[in-house]
Amino acid sequence: MAGTPNAVARMLSLLGDEWTLLIVQRALLGARRYGDFAAALPVSNTVLSGRLQSLTADGLLIRSQYQSNPPRSEYLPTSMGRSLWPMLTSIWEWERRWVPEHAEPLPRMHHATCGRPFQPVVTCRACDGPASGKDVAAQWGPSGSWERSIPSGTNRRRSSGRRSGAALLFPQTMSVVGDRWAFALLVAAFVGVGRFTDFQAQLGAPPATIADRLSVFTDENILGQSGGRYGLTEKGLAFFPVLVCALAWAQRWLPSPEGPAVLLTHTACDRRFAPVLVCDQCGNRLRAEQVLPVS
């Protein structure tokens, strides 16, 4: 339906909050009860209670009573919640490798199948070949447009953004997915938009908004500037797995009646692109239960 939020906008409304991502991540690693989450995350009781309630309402967690007297419940990830693991794995690796501002370095991930620390690699489901932002072409699908891909500012749960103490593990990721204009701007950079006026024309955002987001991305070395054009740095290009895994999740679980918001093509095989993560050590496809942080 014209003008209604598409899968991208709905995904950003659900996931554009760091506490939401961190709680889902802990649930995938085995946290079940309120005390498990409280012990694992430096989050206030008010915020934790609110996020658990909203994650249950949004279908990412299910609340199950395990004790009746007194009543006690646990929170289990649904299929929708469990399928966020490729996006969360990609975020963890990008922050670990490219963001030096963590108080303590993020540990590498361990692949239980081959028994080694690893880095996730994006491949094409159609041909099993490697894929990157340089060989995946994007075009709007039936429900796609910049206008429909940007969530409204009134329906989002926010963690106060990258400048607050809430940005604990994913500070620079949240400067992208935690801001309704920044995600769209980065996607525009991936499809070749490079000039200030072109960003403004494509996104329909106020000039001050575009200038602020470009400043953030250049400060964080996600974008570089040369000759009046902005382009993705090596660090910016490395965010590609997060973008495509987030998009794949959104279009699976939050579809529009008209069809996909974005159509991706792997230019190496000229077929529809869907991301698959593999282990860079053994080459096997990754599965959620096989990915563990190195202690």
Automatic annotation (TrEMBL):
Keywords linked to the UniProt accession: DNA-binding, Transcription, Transcription regulation
Domain HTH hxlR-type stretches: 4-103, 166-258
Gene3D superfamilies: Winged helix-like DNA-binding domain superfamily/Winged helix DNA-binding domain
Pfam families, per database record: HxlR
Chain positions covered by the region annotation Disordered: 135-162
Top-level taxon in the UniProt lineage: Bacteria
Name of the featured protein: Transcriptional regulator, HxlR family
